[in-house]
Design goal:
Length: 206
């Protein structure tokens, strides 16, 4: 590998991941619009800053994780930050004006927290090192994978009943978005397992 191929590969990973993150978060916005119905509004702050921006940042970080060297200390530190980046999906929306108040008073925005926490928990459950923590994270992720689609009829009303094509479509969209997020969130943890001594470390931490 040439001296320049590493940075080029990293920039490519970041760019591809960012585009994928925008596509994922735009699909998430479509799901949110579907369950909100006529009350859904698209705004620069709420849509672009609260949803698309964190999606792009998380995608860029996870894309970068495919190119980082887990054999180097600096690479391992960066991979851990990449893994934690999934929580931006929960944190950034809470920084919007009045959003934290809305969460505490009405629960509005709790879905963003569930998505961020579920993504991180699912990624660790798939590829984390500590077996006991994987066992703890797995049911959390499973609950969110099932819970978010299951909540569609409750939030969306009769129009999104599971007996209607639209309802099934929105439920499938919600569930598949979570599965894709979890699969992507597992990448940094999987790369960390490629570091020298990772196998021995897993054995000693059980």
């Amino acid at each position: 590998m040439s001296a320049t191929s590493g940075p080029v590969r990293l920039r490519t990973g970041i760019a591809v991941g960012a585009v994928a993150g925008i596509a994922w978060s735009a699909a998430l916005r479509a799901y949110m619009s579907a369950i909100a119905g006529s009350e859904s509004t698209v705004s620069w702050l709420g849509t672009f800053v609260g949803i698309l921006l964190p999606g792009m940042l998380v995608g860029a970080a996870l894309g970068a994780s495919t190119c980082l060297d887990p054999a180097m200390h600096r690479g391992r530190v960066a991979l851990r930050w990449c893994a934690a980046s999934v929580l931006l999906l929960a944190v950034v929306p809470m920084l919007l004006p009045n959003q934290l108040v809305a969460l505490l008073t009405s629960g509005l925005g709790g879905g963003a927290i569930a998505i961020g926490v579920g993504g991180l928990a699912g990624g660790y459950a798939l590829a984390g090192r500590r077996v006991w923590l994987r066992v703890v994270c797995a049911p959390v992720a499973a609950l969110i994978i099932v819970g978010i689609p299951a909540s569609v009829p409750t939030v969306g009303g009769d129009a999104l009943s599971p007996t209607t094509p639209r309802g099934v479509w929105v439920m499938l969209l919600a569930g598949s978005l979570m599965i894709v997020l979890i699969a992507a969130a597992a990448i940094p943890f999987r790369r960390l397992n490629e570091a020298p001594g990772a196998a021995e470390s897993r054995l000693t931490r059980r």
